[in-house]
Each structure stands twice: as structure tokens, then as C-alpha cells.
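Run GST C-terminal domain-containing protein through structure prediction, thanks.
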Amino acid sequence: MSKGTLFIKPASPRSNWLDALVKTLNIDVDVVDYSKSEEYAKLFPLKKTPAFADSEGYELTEVLAIIEYLFSLASDKTLRGVTNKDQAQVMRWLSYVNQDMVNTWVDYLFVAKTEDAKKAASEQQAEQLAYINSELATRSWLAVDGYVTVADEYFFSWYAGFADVAGGITSAKYPYLTKWHETMKAKDVVAKSLSKL
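Sure, done. The structure for GST C-terminal domain-containing protein is below.
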């Protein structure tokens, strides 16, 4: 029996990867395009996605909270981090991507009104990507060295947009980030599903 419904916006990097995550976690959650649901607007008047609701009246918004709740329903929590320290690193990177990097992306696309402001946001996004590139010089994955986590998957969902804002990603400029991206596309189920979009 379904544990609830996850409403997503297929075009949004905040939620376009969650269907694949639900399948990877092997949890019984219905994933629905919010625009095709009459129930969604009644349950979530702010119209934020992703959003989760179950049959008992439990409602949840905000991607990081939803990720945490989905893991509470899963028996295999490896993608969340095996140890407490790994889990803290996963949350650190989820937060960094969702807050710092997405804010820069939003500044560039929606807030910046002048060419100077756009240039500043683009340079900031490039600095953020350079920081991640330097972090990946010492390990294979974003949060934990030994294995892929949900932090890698969430960052992957934003990767193309961040690259566009920063003026592209080349292997000469970001060799470790490029290697990580290629490895994700080849090995991770969620990344493979996003690559088909």
C-alpha cells in the first residue's frame, strides 16, 4: 500500500530527480506531476514543489525535509550516509547546493538586472564550482569518499544549470568535476535517469 504521494515539477532540478530516488530506495510512494493533480492545489495552497502528502493528513514541503522523510521510509539508507559523520557530510553538501549555489543561480537568472550583476553572479557560480572541483581532487564523491550519496544526486540534478550560469564546464578548467560528472552518468541510477531528460 502506498505510503503517500510525492508531487513533483518535472522541469525543476529540485524535484525532477526524486522519482528515480523513490525507485532506488524501493519505497511505495506515488510520484505525480503536480500540474496533473487537482488534489495538489487543495493540499498545498502555496504551490511549492516538491510536496508530500499521505492518507493520514501528513503534509510536507521543502526538498531537504522530503529527502529526509523518504529515507525514513526506506530500509536501505546507504545513500543518506552510513555513519553519523557521513550523514552530517551529506547534509552539509545538500545544504550547500540548495542554499549557496541555488541562490547564486537564482541571482543570475532572476534577480540580476544589469550586466555587472549578471557577471558577478556568474563569477560566484564559477567560484563555487571551482571549490567543488578542488574538493573532488581528494575523493571520488561529493560527501563521502567511498560511495555515492544523495548529495551527489542532488548536485547532479542542478549541474547543467550551474554550468550554464558559470559559463560552462570544461575538463581543462574543472578536471575533477568533469570526471565526477562522467562517473555519475555511467554508474548512478538517478543520474542516468536525469541524463535522459
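The longest strand covers residues 5-8.
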